[in-house]
Write a structure and sequence with these properties.
two-stranded parallel ribbon; alpha/beta; 156 residues; 4-stranded mixed beta sheet; Rossmann fold
């Protein structure tokens, strides 16, 4: 979800993932992703509208990934419903977001509420730093060291 320029797709292809389907709202990003020849299909569509999520994408995937879509000016909590829609029972959603966005954009509450309601169960979470080579407390332009969370959830 949010395949962007294809960085994650390329990493999955190198690791032997058999079928990779990308979804992105940006035609420009999709054009760059296509040049990497790692996707079997790329779908140009906007995420964040679970009520009209395409039937052909529902209950289809064993694994979905989402890197850099849970960010400032990107997607709201509705995308978590689309993750649930996309996965087969027993499938995994693996996604990242900056730790500061968990509460700022209500992601934490939405993730935990889906677990409380029995849609998925947390399998793993970990924290890492992005831009870790920048000295803590220092900014280089708009960049500074930030904590990022990565989650893995299993659809029940």
């Amino acid at each position: 979800m949010g395949c962007g320029t294809g960085m994650v797709g390329a990493a999955l292809k190198v690791r032997g993932v058999a079928e990779i389907i990308g979804i992105d709202a940006s035609a420009g990003m999709i054009e760059i992703a296509k040049q990497k020849h790692c996707y079997d299909q790329i779908i140009h569509m906007y995420l964040g509208k679970p009520a009209v999520y395409p039937p052909k994408l529902r209950n289809r995937f064993d694994i979905i990934t989402a890197a850099a879509i849970l960010a400032e000016g990107h997607l709201g909590v509705e995308v978590f419903d689309e993750m649930i829609h996309s996965l087969k029972r027993g499938g995994y959603a693996i996604f990242t977001t900056r730790e500061m966005y968990l509460d700022k954009y209500n992601y934490r509450h939405a993730i935990e509420e889906l677990e409380r309601r029995g849609f998925w169960k947390k399998v793993k979470e970990a924290k890492f730093q992005k831009y870790q080579n920048i000295e803590k407390g220092t900014k280089i332009g708009r960049y500074e060291t930030v904590d990022v969370m990565i989650y893995a959830y299993k659809k029940l």
